[in-house]
Design a protein that fits this description.
The structure holds 2 protein chains of 2 kinds.
Chain A (H helix, E strand, L loop, with lengths): L1 H4 L5 H27 L2 H21 L3 H22 L4 H22 L7 H6 L7 H30 L1 H6 L4 H42 L3 H26 L3 H19 L16 H4 L3 H13 L2
Helix pairs in contact in A: 2-7, 2-9, 2-10, 3-4, 3-5, 3-9, 4-5, 4-9, 7-9, 9-10, 9-11, 10-11
Chain B lengths: L2 E4 L3 H5 L16 E10 L2 E11 L4 E5 L6 H9 L6 E6 L11 E4 L13 H7 L2 H4 L7 H13 L15 H14 L4 E4 L8 H16 L3 E5 L3 H7 L2 E6 L1 E7 L6 H8 L3 E4 L2 E6 L22
Parallel strand pairs in B: 4-8, 4-9, 6-7, 7-8
Antiparallel strand pairs in B: 1-12, 2-3, 2-5, 9-10, 11-12
Helix pairs in contact in B: 3-6, 5-6
Classes of the chains: A mainly alpha, B alpha/beta.
Chain lengths: 303, 296
């Protein structure tokens, strides 16, 4: 018990705990849509794109959040805009912007004399260094993201599942796409201090992916993702405190371990247990069974 | 994998539907297209299409792959801005009255591993009518239940959609459209690759929808079904070949004109060689009316 209570006596640890749990929750909620929309790579690109914004903010003496936010949101909107115009594949666009913006960050960074100490923290996170002001900023930004998702959940769900039918029924699918990608950008900015640029994508994708392996309803998937995200934040932070290792990396490793467990033991993926795919209704499937299996195998082959 | 669709089916003679569409000259048409040309990038999919679809018409859109069947539905739904020409859907600009239109994409357009149940998908049909920020209430639950009842899927309400057969998936999509209580159904291949029983049941349902004064426009590869179960048929191959009574489509001259080299005559029966699983454009290539690509 002492081992659990003792660290909480430190204000920095308590702040780190609150921040990691908040990040875990916000990332899990937004990440559930990211996983279903297949936007994991975009999340990675946006987090790297925040780097030049952070460095610029440092050079100009501005706020970390403003610098990271402007860079992340503008890159995310640019990716969406370029991909919607067509002509280039989405992954190509992302690849170009991803490397380009990160290079700009390193370029700017190299112009700063005698400022090298914090690069590791920027890249890999330093949640134990979070100040009370940071915590307030994180709570406001994270709360805003959760509020927007709560208000738009049904439109986001419909346009994620079936964008054509949703658009035809009057849901502003194109505008929602921009709103959502901006939410991803803000979520990433919120998460940067906790896990750093390189590992943010894990916070966004791993809990939601784990949840998708064990649930078959969207609301439950989001709930399980939140539990995995916040639970691994708590566990990871304690582990990093006890063993004096990098906190962001430890949190991500706990998430990855949970994902592996779900993959091995989960009811759907069933690497260890046999997949339970009892046909629903033999009579209804009669005559269509071959069609169904062909349909699903075709879809898996399709890009 | 070539699907071989018999053009002359014994079904057709059992229930001939030779009656012309019940066009009420005083009623506004559900759809009006004038000189519509549309396509993707540089590729023309529809050319100079003039068309009027009467309110309450049960219309089958037929034609070979790449004929522009899906494109036509997308133009009507406001999902694709035509390069040229005028379109009126329910008397307004497409997309303007979107809540009164239910568009049902091809089954392959969605991810069936998506974590939603049958009930969840049908409830999505209620979302546009709810308005922003409102959550579904008892009225919507009731509507979902009724729609599932109509397609005989009530007992599968809690089932994850990936566990459904091909026919059950089409039933769920139709239920979602019904739950929206629209005036116009735009359905892409609603009865493709499903068993005969399901096809008959879904067509019975579409028939009753149309007889209730609502308009149904469905693309199909199944000419026997088009001739036997629909009221009217629109044969297209980028341009309109004909629009008239459904039985017209079995006319060999018209078939030849519509399908060109894809026709085969076997022992006095004409068959259409067509690949029902090939799509006119990849499902990933999605266009919305807010930012439709225009011809350069």
């Amino acid at each position: 018990m002492d081992a659990l209570m003792e660290p909480l006596g430190f204000a920095f640890f308590l702040r780190a705990m609150l921040a990691s749990v908040l990040v875990g929750v916000v990332c899990a909620v937004v990440g559930s849509y990211v996983v279903l929309k297949g936007l994991a790579f975009i999340g990675d690109a946006i987090s790297h794109a925040a780097f030049p914004g952070i460095v610029a903010a440092f050079i100009l003496g501005g706020s970390f959040y403003v610098g990271a936010g402007i860079a992340a949101v503008s890159t995310s909107v640019a990716i969406t805009w370029v991909s919607r115009r067509g002509g280039l594949r989405l992954d190509t666009t992302i690849g170009v912007l991803f490397a380009g913006t990160f290079a700009l960050g390193i370029f700017l960074y190299s112009t700063i004399e005698g400022y090298v100490g914090d690069l590791f923290h920027l890249l890999f996170g330093y949640v134990l260094g979070i100040s009370p002001d940071d915590l307030v900023a994180l709570t406001l930004l994270g709360g805003t993201v959760l509020l927007v998702v709560a208000l738009l959940w049904k439109e986001l769900l419909y346009s994620t599942f079936d964008p054509l039918a949703a658009a035809a029924s009057g849901i502003p699918v194109a505008r929602l796409e921009y709103v959502f990608i901006a939410l991803v950008a803000v979520t990433i900015v919120v998460s940067l201090q906790a896990v750093g640029i390189v590992l943010v994508v894990a916070m966004l994708v791993t809990p939601a992916a784990t949840a998708q392996l064990v649930t078959s309803r969207f609301s439950r998937m989001m709930l399980v993702a939140v539990l995995v995200g916040s639970g691994s934040a708590v566990a990871g932070l304690y582990l990093s405190f006890w063993f004096d290792v990098a906190s962001g990396a430890t949190i991500v490793l706990v998430q990855t371990a949970l994902f592996a467990a779900a993959l091995l033991l989960g009811p759907k993926s069933g690497l260890l247990l046999r997949r339970r795919t009892a046909p629903l209704d033999e009579t209804a499937r009669e005559g269509t069974a071959s069609t169904t299996s062909m349909d699903s195998s075709e879809r898996r082959l399709a890009p | 994998m070539s699907g071989v669709t018999p053009a002359a089916d014994p079904h057709a003679s059992q229930s001939p539907r030779l009656a012309p569409p019940p066009t009420d000259p005083t009623a506004d048409p559900a759809i009006r297209l004038a000189g519509v040309t549309a396509g993707y990038g540089e590729r023309v999919a529809l050319e100079s299409v003039d068309l009027e679809v009467a309110t309450g018409e049960l219309l089958a859109v037929v034609g070979p792959n790449g004929a522009g069947k899906s494109t036509l539905l997308k133009v009507m739904a406001g999902l694709l801005e035509p390069w040229r020409g005028e379109v009126e859907t329910l008397g307004a600009r497409p997309g303007r009255l979107a809540k009164r239109v239910a568009y049902v994409p091809q089954a392959e357009a969605v991810d069936w591993d998506f974590p939603v149940t049958v009930g969840d998908v049908v409830m999505m049909g209620r979302f546009p009518g709810l308005g922003r920020f409102r959550r579904p209430g008892p009225v919507d639950q009731r509507a979902v239940h009724d729609a599932l009842g109509q397609v005989d899927m009530v007992k599968h309400r809690g089932t994850q959609i990936g566990r459904l057969s091909g026919g059950q998936r089409r039933r769920v999509f139709l239920a979602r459209a019904l739950a929206a209580e629209p005036d116009l159904f735009l359905m892409d291949e609603p009865v493709t690759a499903i068993d005969a029983t399901t096809q008959e049941e879904l067509m019975d349902l579409l028939e009753s929808v149309a007889s209730g004064g609502r308009t149904v426009i469905a693309t199909t590869h199944d000419l026997a079904c088009a001739a036997a179960r629909f009221q009217t048929v629109l044969a297209i191959n980028r341009r309109v070949i004909t629009h008239g009574a459904a039985s017209l489509i079995l006319d060999p001259a018209l078939l030849a004109q519509t399908y060109g080299g894809h026709l085969l005559t076997l022992g006095g029966q004409t068959v259409v060689l067509d690949d029902a699983h090939h799509h006119e454009e990849s499902p990933g290539q999605v266009h919305y009316h807010e930012e439709a690509p225009r011809r350069r």
